[in-house]
């Protein structure tokens, strides 16, 4: 592949109130993932407790992923018609409202419909309409010199939020172990907290200013990503992200929790403690990611740290005991999310400013498309007693993605790395 250079016209400081808007985006991500960290621990266990089978749980989670994909499409195509601020508020409110369905029914179809709209798949993974809104909004209020650090701050907010969310599961442990509550009743307390988190988030987003909105001229109400000048790299990176997302969707936190319960007999409090420790390691690596990227480049950082992470993932499937499994999972946490800020910054640097909303939307749609069938596939593999398969298939595909994206973009020269 011949060397390519993409220009960056965002060297100058952004206008408006970038500091405050960035803080609001960070706070919104932290709250959003606080809820996701909470539901990641309890969701599959709660659904099993109210009578859903493993394949049905997989279908419910799959409906959530499909819903996120559809909403991502709507957000991307309506970028010129509906403001980012409005979408932030709408998505948070819908997510909160959909959780109420779990209080009023045990019908798998009604729960599936609510999951479609309400993002029940508490995977802790950062894809979907909220992510593309965060990426494009932060890019508007940063420049090429501060963008990677801003995405690192966003990921720190995310990891911190998920750690707090996992810690909140201790409320249910207390209610069940000390107060003798039934599991379902104790988990409903956590679901009520999740509802409140999303409503609070909707209120916080109301404070965003117009600085986060796209500065690109709107030629029409609908955006067509296939007509953008950078459509070739956009489509290539979106396709590769789909492979990564499919493999990641097979092994997300809800299934990790169920694996630790079924194989090792762990309780939810111990699982939450492992997740908290893992998120602590994530915080360190995420914070260091911009510094590492300055030394070895954005592409090298987000590829090679993932190679290490995915080797750990495969090793986790063969852990002979609970302590070793937990240790490998936490070791993976050192590397697992160092790619998040560097990958997002790389995406934004790969295209000119006027195409960054399309890049964010297309890349995250690729991730959403890949993720849609993954949890359902895991559910059926698990039901067929192939419980180890998701870890091996997911880890193997992720390694293939790492090498594919490296060899596809290794000769692309970014402006901030050409000095």
Binned, the helix content reads: over 70%
Number of helices: 18
Whole-angstrom Rg:
20 Å
Order of helices and strands: EHHHHHHHHHHHHHHHHHHE
Distance between the termini: 21 Å
How would you characterize the largest beta sheet?
Answer: 2 strands, parallel
Structural class: mainly alpha
Widest sheet, order of strands = 1-2
Work out the number of β strands: 2
Using the alpha-carbon principal axes, give the shape: globular
Q: Give the overall average pLDDT.
A: 82
Question: What is the strand content?
Answer: under 5%
Low-confidence stretches: 1-16
Name of the CATH homologous superfamily? MFS general substrate transporter like domains
Structure overview:
There is one protein chain. Helix content is 73%, strand content 1%. It is built from 18 helices and two strands. α8 packs antiparallel against α9 (183-205). The chain is globular. 54% of the residues are buried. The model is unreliable at 1-16 (pLDDT under 50).
Primary descriptors:
two-stranded parallel ribbon, 1% strand, disordered N terminus, Growth Hormone, Chain: A, 2 strands, 419 residues, mainly alpha
Summarize the structure.
It comes from Candidatus Lucifugimonas marina. The protein has 419 residues and is mainly alpha-helical.
Which helices and strands, and how do they pair?
Layout: E1 4-5, H1 18-49, H2 54-77, H3 84-98, H4 101-104, H5 108-118, H6 129-140, H7 147-168, H8 170-177, H9 183-205, H10 231-249, H11 253-264, H12 268-296, H13 298-316, H14 322-336, H15 339-350, H16 356-371, H17 374-383, H18 389-409, E2 412-413
Parallel strand pairs: 1-2
Helix pairs in contact: 1-6, 1-7, 1-9, 1-11, 2-5, 2-6, 2-16, 2-17, 3-5, 3-6, 3-9, 6-16, 7-12, 7-15, 8-9, 10-16, 10-18, 12-13, 12-14, 12-15, 13-14, 13-15, 13-18
